[in-house]
UniProtKB/TrEMBL annotation:
Residues 328-470 form the RGS domain. It holds the Pfam family DEP. The keyword S-adenosyl-L-methionine does not apply. Residues 297-325 are annotated as: Disordered. Residues 211-289 form the DEP domain. InterPro entries: DEP_dom, RGS, RGS1/SST2-like_Fungal-DR, RGS_sf, RGS_subdomain_2, WH-like_DNA-bd_sf, WH_DNA-bd_sf. The keyword Metal-binding does not apply. Keywords: Signal transduction inhibitor. Transmembrane segments: none annotated. This is Developmental regulator flbA. GO terms for biological process: intracellular signal transduction; negative regulation of signal transduction.
Length: 489
């Protein structure tokens, strides 16, 4: 089976590329480049590329994903399923996209250039760019030697904050709980203080290479007649968010920083009457008392008591643990802040593919239902694209030996293999095939949901570092409300 798909960058209503499409385009480009050493002045720098190489390759990119497996009907026969995705664009557009990669902090100059106009300019991936590429390669089973060597280099150190987004609009979730989760990472478990103002305000971003330290702060800073502690600049806020989160557009960093201000987590000390965040290096901010409580720098009254009380007490009230964990899983999927933390927990325990598959199938089924409702002429083209997406999901998560192979029921796996290896030779068969695939994917999604609920949720609840936020989010209270709605409905 061979499905092809020509991809266009989806754009948001504020003319920004959808984050996932943008990251996939970047990663596909990096895989296509040789990433060989290039000489810069008197030294050779490994795993680099030139502007000309990047712009040329972006003009016609092709990415194929294949899986070989025994034919379910005849094990002696090998069947290969392949999904090929192509991107194409004019040279000037390619140059503009490369510049966007630079602005997103995916790449950085190795020879002091600040744009892609010079054909011979040399570029290398940032730790952020390598993290993006690594996630793409893990999902798609990419093991080319040059990529493997890059990702195993000492520069691959980043642990990005994976921000949750609205699937239809790609907008960041802006609810207070999600903002506070990101804020905790932004300021760190303790202040990242520097003894001198020049150190805290420097433009160097090398300290953020792991993503595990908070924004750089000056231990003391005199503003007017008053001395403030743990201060940082507006520029430092934007730099940290851009370097340590999955944002690709600077405008989003300013929006999130504004939410830090709106929720009373940070305050401007040189212009206290201004409610508007400024990204200027001359604008000085500090963490408020509320921000210190949210960050866990000071003890909150809500944090006292038994950290397991919210779990143990609810079990006594709610009956069977299995049902409780199923309900908790539902709430986690619906709550962006909890989902962000749950994703982080799954990443730490090497199970993130379960959540990734669940959410990808959710998006796939939404696109499938939209395609079925489509009444205009391009309907078959949309169905063809949707079917190609299904093969991409199958090759990534469900095919035998796939890079993120999931643990699902054997009979369901066999049914999927039989369906996905069956040829589709006309339009009617393609529509019928998509219907069957959607049904099977829905079953696989339910299977993965149950696995996460029974195995991952209990471990997540017992993880000490999430105890405070789970208590603040009142997970079991949300479960009770959800159950109440279900009963009343």
């Amino acid at each position: 089976m061979h499905q092809t798909s020509s991809r266009l960058l989806r754009m948001t209503d504020d003319d920004r590329p959808f984050t996932r499409d943008f990251k996939d385009l970047f990663s596909t480009l990096m895989v296509s480049l040789p990433l060989t050493p290039h000489r810069v002045r008197f030294a050779k720098i490994d795993h680099t590329f030139t502007s000309e190489e990047a712009v040329t390759n972006l003009g016609s990119l092709k990415f194929s994903q294949s899986n070989r497996m025994p034919d379910p009907k005849d094990p002696s026969r090998i069947v290969t399923t392949t999904t090929t995705t192509t991107f194409s664009m004019a040279k000037e557009m390619a140059r503009s996209v490369c510049q966007k990669f630079l602005e997103a902090r995916f790449v950085e100059s190795a020879d002091g250039k600040n744009d892609f106009t010079s054909k011979s300019a040399v570029w290398q991936l940032t730790p952020k760019g390598m993290h993006i590429l690594q996630r793409f390669c893990q999902r798609n089973g990419i093991q080319q030697r040059h990529v493997f060597e890059l990702l195993n280099s000492s520069r691959n150190t980043m642990n990005l904050v994976i921000l949750e987004r609205e699937p239809e609009t790609d907008k960041l979730h802006r609810d207070q709980a999600t903002v506070e989760v990101v804020f905790r990472r932004f300021v760190g478990t303790e202040p990242n203080v520097k003894n001198s103002i020049s150190s805290s305000d420097s433009d160097s971003l090398s300290e953020y290479q792991t993503g595990l330290v908070g924004v750089k702060m000056a231990k003391e800073r005199k503003v007017g007649d008053r001395v403030y502690y743990n201060t940082f600049t507006g520029k430092a806020v934007v730099d940290w968010l851009m370097d340590c989160c999955t944002m690709v557009d600077r405008r989003e960093t300013i929006e999130l920083a504004q939410l830090f201000c709106d929720h009373g987590l940070i305050a401007c000390v040189d212009n206290p009457n201004s409610a508007r965040f400024s990204q200027s290096k001359s604008s000085i901010y500090t963490v408020t008392e509320k921000g210190q409580r949210v960050a866990g720098w000071v003890t909150s009254s809500k944090s006292s008591g038994n950290p397991d009380a919210h779990v143990n007490g609810s079990r006594a009230r709610e009956g069977p643990t299995r049902d409780s964990n199923t309900n908790r899983m539902t709430v986690i999927l619906q709550d962006p802040a909890l989902r962000l933390l749950f994703r982080e927990f799954l990443r730490d325990t090497h199970c993130e593919e379960n959540l990734a598959f669940y959410l990808d199938v959710r998006d796939f089924l939404a696109n499938y239902n939209a395609a079925k409702r489509q009444q205009t002429v391009p309907k078959l083209e949309i169905i063809r694209e949707t079917l190609a997406a299904a093969y991409g999901l199958y090759n990534a998560f469900l095919a035998p030996g796939s890079p993120c192979e999931l643990n699902i029921d054997h009979s369901l796996r066999t049914s999927l293999a039989a369906r996905m290896t069956r040829a589709v030779d006309d339009d009617d068969a393609m529509v019928k095939s998509l219907d069957e695939v959607a049904t099977l994917f829905d079953q696989a999604q339910n299977s993965v949901f149950k696995l996460m609920a029974s195995d991952s949720v209990p471990k997540f609840l017992r993880e000490p570092k999430y105890a405070n936020i789970l208590r603040e989010r009142n997970l079991d209270g949300q479960v009770a409300v959800t159950n109440g709605r279900a009963v009343s409905g």
